Amino acid sequence: IFPGDAKAWKAAIAKNAETLKKDVETVEAQISHHVHTTLARAPFNVDELTMYQAAALSVRDRLIARWNETQTFHTQQRVKRVYYLSLEFLMGRQFDNAMLNLGVKKPYNDGLKQLGFNLEDVSDSERDMGLGNGGLGRLAACYLDSLATLDIPAFGYTLRYQQGIFRQIINSNGEQVEVPDPWLENTNPWEIPRLDAAVEIRLHGEATRGDNAKGAGTWTGGLEVLAVPYDIPVPGFGTKTTNNIRTWSARGKVSFDLAKFNAGDYEAAVREAEEAETITRVLYPNEASLRHATYILVQVELTHDFEQNFDKGKALRLKQQYLWVAASLHDICRRFRKLREPWTAFPDYNAIQLNDTHPTLAIPELMRILVDEEGQPWDEAWDIVRRTFGYTNHTGAALMTEALERWAVPLIEWLLPRHMQIIYDINAFFLEEVEKKFPNDRARLARMSLIEEGYPKMVRMAHLAVIGSHRVNGVAALHSRLVKQDLFPDFVEMFGQDRFTNVTNGITARRWLYQCNPQLAALITQALGTEEWILDLDKLKGLEKYARDKKFQKEWASIKQANRDRLCEYIESTTDVKVNRKALIDVQVKRIHEYKRQSLNILGVIFRYLTLKKLKPEERKRVVPRLSVFGGKAAPGYYMANINAVSKTINADKDIREHLSVVFLADYSVSLAEIIIPASDLSEHISTAGTEASGTSNMKFALNSGLLIGTLDGANIEIAEAIGDENVFFFGNVTEDVPRLRRAHQAGEAQYPPELMEVVDAIRSGMFGDGGVFEPLLNTIFGGKDYYLISDDFTSYLEAQRMVDVAFVDQSSWVEKTIHTTARMGRFASDRAVMQYADEIWNVEPVKIPDSA
Ligand code: 7GP
After folding, report:
1. Which of 74, 246, 596, 685 is catalytic?
2. Nearest Cα to 318, choosing from 330, 307, 309, 328?
3. Which of 76, 569, 570, 603 is the most buried (most CB within 10 A)?
4. pLDDT at 303 over 50
5. Which pLDDT tens digit goes with each residue over 533-589?
6. Atom of ligand 1 at shortest distance to CA of 475?
7. CA–CA separation, 527 vs 546, rounded Å?
């Protein structure tokens, strides 16, 4: 196996293995190695950033060793792998997480101390890996942690955006300003460049069909660009398995055009290469704004020059999607060919999960590879495709079909001519089947077609994902029901119930308790007498017996207070607000979006303010003090200046300050969530029923002993089932009521509650400055049709908030509720969710990497 002298190899490997020992001296030696050689610094010249880089590189060495063993073992054993295709992985910071999963945090802590550094300060030098927008991207990160921890062979595939999610600054008008996130400015120690393993990707060009409808076609010409892989190792907790996230970076194929270069036209020589690189320059900020762009586009008159007439952003986004899936499938197929198995065995070795519709082009791409390149018969190829793919939908079904991704046919034809043919053929054969099963039903054919008629025609990516997958799942019980009922009812009739299933989302307790709330984790471990809960979250049940134990309650509460203090310090150091450390901390952090109804919250805050103003000073003292915390990024151009206007007035009011303060924390991120979530007493998950597919922060708050106020939406419902209705503050209309209420608004028959009118009067009186910043909001409620039913849920929301105040006064019973809440959150572990995917969708088994590997 070894080239050259086997003895020399073995001795070298054994010697090198010593660098992986976990004692403090070894850790210090490794760090100093990187300081001196990789970073070329002398000890007197080491600042925190350098120390972070050196320490991170030494952790990376350990990861790479395990990564190598894992990959080699998986290859030798010919295991079936899961490929998780996600356009977003919101990883956050890696250093702390990697140390904890590898079990080396203590020696790093001690080692750094001896070298003159504090671990926490060093960790703070790390930039978040912000390669995602929100829930979908963070879910992908949690699932990768679980896959590795559960020893399931898996790869994540995504793009290596040079700019991740924008950084958010709040200007003096209280508006969001987006600034770039150059996260790669300092070298990123967590990735391994594989510059030699680039993949060639074709765009544009000419396509031909085969002799008969199902024969092999061709695709030639056009432009070739390179996709260069960078690997990020993902270590499991307490296991050797180290999986991989492969991120693709776009490059020009020839770095410059020699002829032009020689002719002296230097700029033209590099232009093409630069254009290729723009493909992975930036993460797209938000689905909603892009969909909006689609609608505008539909009305634009089209010519053949799409770069000019099509929204450039749209074309670039499609290029991103294709470069990513084509490079990933190339990789997967290359690995499969080495097995020398027939293509019909492809699904026995590969399960590919489509994280929403963004990677749906993988379906026609795999058809193209199988039919055009590998000479497989069409029907067999289609069978292979269907057995390989699974599709997860993440959009709230009550937002309805217009929320689903669609691409203009002319755009696909221009960029991917062969894929457009394949999509048309898939559609033709599919509609034949529909016609067979439901003869003479033209309306049904039109509804189910992959192509939506219009000018231009559009490809419905969700339909393609449904017919090209063997399983389609939603992400919470309610959502999965709505996916069948509202989004794909025709497809349920066509394929039967079995193709549709539910996998309720989950979160990793490694990051979202063990890492972000170390004190609570330590208390739990002490009470349970074991750390097993980190791998088996149902073990938290064992806390139930302490729920009424006064001593335990006291320790539990004092940890919450410590976490609260930490958040208050953060607030006071980043804003000019002075906060009451005893206040109930009421949090809403998530993407800012109409359906999530931050507006309901802020209108409720105003009502609380008005109520407090009416009380005498001694009466106010009896009201539970509150600190309302908001955070979240809005789609570019969508401002939340109203929240900041309210906070300005309230925080400046000397009579009220003690009793109510409001802060908006800028630049919400995974790292900020790690500070906010452990500190929260109450968190808000208050979307219009039927619109939030699941929510995952609700799980994080509850796991960290915070109570929830929410609607009967997404995973809130299942959380309440698990922890007990009595521990959740529910309010508002249910999904079934939504259509009727919307109709009432449309017919002008809706009632507006007096509490809401009181709030509106206060706004209009100028109490919160120029009312202009509220106009868009008030317009959607009064001028428009109150699509998200703020007015319908307002009164019951206020009532639920009153119940919170009442409950909080009895601290012992409140703490008891929070202990029960944490104790019963086991089923929301991402480990459970991932095992469900493994059993019901992927059909994969864990593979333990032996110590001797
Ligand atoms: C989100 C959903 O809004 C959220 O409810 C869910 O918990 C999360 O996915 C994970 O399943 N969706 C997105 O983040 C998103 O970008 C567009 O959806 C396809």
Report:
1. 596
2. 307
3. 603
4. no
5. 999 999 999 999 999 999 999 999 999 999 999 999 999 999 999 999 999 999 999
6. 11
7. 8
CA distance 527 to 559: 14
Locate the ligand 1 atom nearest the alpha carbon of residue 405 and give its number: 19
From the alpha carbon of 358, which atom of ligand 1 is closest?
A: 19
Q: Are strands 89-92 and 129-131 parallel, antiparallel or unpaired?
A: antiparallel
Copy the structure tokens of residue 456.
């231009």
All domains of the chain, ordered by start, with CATH? 6-77+94-127 (no CATH), 135-302+319-505+838-842 (3.40.50.2000), 520-828 (3.40.50.2000)
pLDDT digits (tens, 9 = 90+) for 315-346: 899 999 999 999 999 999 999 999 999 999 99
Residue 454 CB-density burial (10 A; 0-12 exposed, 13-18 middle, 19+ buried): exposed
d(Cα 1, Cα 763) in Å, to the nearest integer? Answer: 77
- In this structure, which residue's CA is closest to atom 16 in ligand 1? 136
Residue type, 85: L
Catalytic residue at 593? no
The residue whose CA is least distant from atom 7 of ligand 1 is 695
CB atoms within 10 A of CB 340: 6
Beta bridge partners of 709: 684, 729
Has 696 been annotated as catalytic?
yes
Q: Which of 501, 696, 735, 818 is catalytic?
A: 696
Catalytic residue (one of 591, 648, 657, 745):
591
Give the Cα separation of 664 and 419 in Å (integer): 46
For the CA of 356, the closest atom of ligand 1 is 19
DSSP 205: -
Of 136, 595, 711, best ligand 1 pocket probe by most atoms within 8 Å of the beta carbon? 136
Ligand 1, CB cutoff 6 Å, lining residues: 133-136, 139, 287, 356, 394-395, 475, 505, 692-696, 714
CB-based contacts of 795: which residues, under 8 Å, 6+ apart? 753, 755, 756
Q: The whole model's pTM is what?
A: 0.96
| Cβ-contact 73, 847 below 8 angstroms | yes
b/e burial code for range 234-245 (CB count within 10 A of at least 16 → b): bbbbebbbbbbb
Residue 472 and residue 500 in contact, taking contact as beta carbons nearer than 8 Å: yes
Task: Report how far residue 444's alpha carbon sits from residue 628's, in angstroms, rounded to the nearest whole number.
Answer: 49
User: Are 610 and 660 spatial neighbours (Cβ–Cβ below 8 Å)?
Assistant: no
* 297 pLDDT more than 50: no
- Rounded to two decimals, the ipTM of the complex is 0.98
* Long-range interactions of 315-319: CB distance < 8 A, separation 24+: 315/411, 315/415, 316/278, 316/279, 317/284, 317/290, 318/407, 318/411, 318/412, 318/415, 319/203, 319/279, 319/415
Our CA dihedral for 217, 220, 224, 230, rounded to 10 degrees, sits at 20
Ligand 1, pocket-test mutation among 355, 357, 394, most atoms within 8 A of CB: 394
Q: Judge contact between 297 and 145, C-beta under 8 A.
A: no
Q: Whose CA is nearest to atom 9 of ligand 1?
A: 136
Tokens 């609608």: give the residue.
295
Rounded to the nearest whole angstrom, what is the distance from the C-alpha of residue 212 to the centroid of ligand 1?
42
